[in-house]
Here is the input.
Amino acid sequence: MKSSKFLLSVALVLCMALTACGNSNNSEGTKEAEKKPETTQEQGQKEDENQVIEVSTVSPSDPYLKFDEGESFDKNAVYDAYEKDVGVKITNKWVAADDPQFKEKLKMTIASNDLPDFVRVNATQLKELTEADMIMDITDVYDQNATDETKKFLMMDGGMQMKTATFDGKLMGIPSSYNPYQYQYLYVRTDWLKKLNLPEPKTMADLLTIAEAFKTKDPGGSGKAYGIAVSKDPFNKDTGVTGLRAFLNGYHAYENLWMEDGNGGLMNSDIQPQVKDALKALQDMFKKGLIDPEFTVKDADKESELIYNNSIGLVFGASWTPAQLAKGAVVDGKVVQEWGVYPIPSVDSNPTMNQIGLGVDEYYVISKNAKHPEGVIKLLNQYIVTQSHPTEEQKVYEYGKDLKEKGANYWLLNPLRVGRQIDNNGEILPKAIETKDTSILETKDQKTRYERAMKYVDGSDINMWWEYLISGPNGAVSHNPKIQQNKEYLQNKFYGAPTPTMAERQEILTKKRDEVYFKIIMNQVSVDEFDKFVEEWKKLGGDEITKEVNEWYKASK
Amino acid sequence: MIEVSPSFYTEKHCEVKGMSGLTRMFKKEWPLHIMLLPGLIIVLIFSYIPMAGIMMAFQKYMPNKGLFGSPFIGMKNFRLLMEYPDIGQIFFNTIFIAVMKIIAGLIVPITIAILLNELRKEWVKRTFQTLVYLPHFLSWVLLSGILIDILSPSSGILNQVLGLFGIKPIFFLGSNSWFPYVMVLSDVWKEFGFGTIVYLAALTNINPSLYEAAQIDGASRIKQIFHITLPGMMPIIILMLTLSIGNVLNAGFDQIFNMYSPPVYESADIIDTFVYRMGIQQAQFGFATAVGLLKSVVSFILISCSYVLAYRVANYRIF
Amino acid sequence: MPNHSSWSRKVFLVFNFIFLAFISLLCLMPIIHILAISFSSGNAAAAGKVTLWPVDFTTAAYDNVFGKPEYLRAFWVSIKRVVLGTSISMLLTIVTAYPLSKDTSQFRLRTWYAWVFVFTILFSGGLVPMYLTVKSLGMLDSIWALVLPGAVPVFNVILLLNFYRNLPKELEESSRIDGASHFTTLWKIYVPLSLPALATTGLFTIVGHWNSWFDGILYMNHPENYPLQSFLQSIIIKNDFRFLKAENVELMIKLSDRTSKAAQIFVAAFPILIVYPFLQRFFIKGIVMGSVKE
Here is the structure.
């Protein structure tokens, strides 16, 4: 009796051990699954006569990517089109559900030395991978396989973005380029301006007058009006709406930008006296109650509540800001808030210089172990072709097999995407929308935007109000041609991965900066604290970083 | 066979005399060893083998060279931490917030568990017990939004209530003197349901005949709580305290990260938020691993000390 | 206990009830708030108009959540994970806690073993080596990657061994004298007597498995294999505006929709809220002593 029970128990434990081992059996299965690509690769090699080569990558999916029946990341119309048109078969080592998860998984993939043939990485990873000798020098591969169209496409900005991917004369990645000329604008409730009989904002003084009037006269009738919307991380470049970078720019001050010091070197913008002026102005606004005193804890969405409920009618933001404003401006198919877009006003007679980035923060790199690096360049060539002048058939790259827009976002399936480094939306779109002239539309992006804006114009979809405010006459981009012509923008002169001291000290410099800036704005300390901060900044590593940046600057010239 | 064990838990082993005694013991004890085997295999594979990663704290990790081929850089990562200009303040904030959370996180659930236990209707007790566990399921990203509303000096309900007593609005999340306490209170509010469940389970373990005897002696309800209930829960209380002491350097990243801001850095910046901000600047694994190792060592020392203390003073083994 | 119906006792009971009701209400409020948001219109939610009652009532957010076919698949993965993970973890917790609950006189190496387990909650090698281990075992993309790495919940083991130790010694002794093996004693006496503790640790295990999402993202190479919480992460977390390109603007409008987020949180937490009261049946006071008297 006793022993039988005992045996039973042993059997139980064994069962558990087996379940544990069961996974190793199971793992055989997974291993086989992992082997599969290799066998298909062999097939791929057999098919070499038919010129089909295979490249592997890793991809982010997206909550709004909707596959047609029977399609998936393993097999879909876009991948099939690449295989048919350029003879490159795309496989995925893994797929993440969205972009933030893609980045988490990518860290693991890099750390475990398990790169696919090509992958999109950020600037820091590009430098790390180059140093660790894990990625290929693609200078020659690119030179031999990129078409003239591709080469031209990636040099539209004069070669700046390609330069950021070049180390010691070797091209280590293809910039995931986009248009760097992304400006910020001032958005104002025009219905309130009319109601209070106020002028349009042309100068910083106008802006202050409007903000004060919006606060004191409370045209929205909310009872807790403020002058301007500001959120918790206002100096960060990722704060696309409710930020204060544009305000700084209006005072000719800039956030962490390396600019020419007039003596052939570079200096950091965070410690320049113009910042002090801007902070002084913000402190005055805060004292007058024009800024929500709780802005330090509210993110853009939270602060936007005040915009939606008619407490605030003034906000700085990027060109897409109307998409955010739409949530409060369009209710049940009716426009209930009217907004206007204006260039950033300036504090004096000098025009405001818009602080802009490089237009590239990610790169496509090719693993050292890739068998067919030329396949990656072929994908790049084909993508540019299908973006710039797609034939009817090539619409498959955009919409899938039905070749028409149905909100499935099939464009997300293109594994290697680059964007135009310059766009002329500002010249084309407002004119086209005003005159309803489709013949002048050039790019795919312009056509999409035109169609959306027209839906608002002809009243078929009032929710497209935001596109009209971006692209229509007097919309955000309509201000671009003037900024572009007069070169009223300022680009960071330092690019690439952080210098050694930056890697160690940038954090404390930013922390100290934010502490002082915020406390000055909130009137907790005198504006003269700024001078103390400048000294501290230099001591805490700022001087060292400036030295390194200038060495880099000399070397890169 | 195994001689690594520190002296304080080997005294009793000395009683075993000679080989025959040892074999006899093994004969008697082997089923117990077998029982531990599956668990040991799991922790060996999934905890001890990955611990090799601790080496990264002393390395410049190169993925293509791996853990065993990457160059060693000595204590550089620890120096980077210790030479950080605000390091004293960050350690103070971390320990201050964490210790208050440990204390409050002990007292509140015990009190609530005892009070719940006094409820007469079983369904009322169960309902309350379920409700207090609810906040545990909400993330700090979400709760921070709700707390910002509740604590708002202009429209928050708390300040409106305080206003009835003539107290001027307080910007709880923007004030250095309030911020740490708000963190402690909101954390206790979110997590006390968890502790309450453990202590309620501990209450079931107390022998009801003890209460009957006390009632016959005419002991008051309060007396019963202090002389029967609390002593009965003591092993679990000591256990929970010991384990939470290990958290003295964990002040709660998700919570603070979602609610702090530059004006309250001086009272709110903790080790983990600092490590996070450093991580944006440099994507190295070494620094985060080094800080993690430091925290582990501190926890290990504190837990060992309380373990020894409990054994020496009360002759009680926590685990 | 009728002999304690004194006046002061009654006052205490009333106040105790009111106090606990107040505390419970405090804990219930945010849930009601989220529920109210999930049933409100997008405009009202975005403008922060919703407090505890839906504004412009609509079920659009739920239609949106349940409209995704991935939802059911992820739900099923989560169920599998919870059932498999909880059974394995509970089994391991029960058999691991038993030997460790013995005295040193009965099991000489118990303290040594206990530290072997406790050490694992204090020290960890970090994500990278963990990932490498799981990968080299070939468990990527399999349910085992979610179940086995945390299969020994050390905190629960310690909790349970403390409960075991409080069981009356006589029970075990008499069972051993009757000739029962350790295994029999464990299953026939320890397990039935520690039901409240098992319900507690079981609850923690279930909740732990249900709520964890990061391992799903880390170890699963196809979103089809994500458990529910990992799947929901891709919708709930804040959108990253940094790489926003022209095409993404339309997506952004949909993504920052508070009402669907609220609905998803509720949908994710609901199953657990059902399991909990069921487990409460085992929190019965005095079960231990009742069986001693037999």
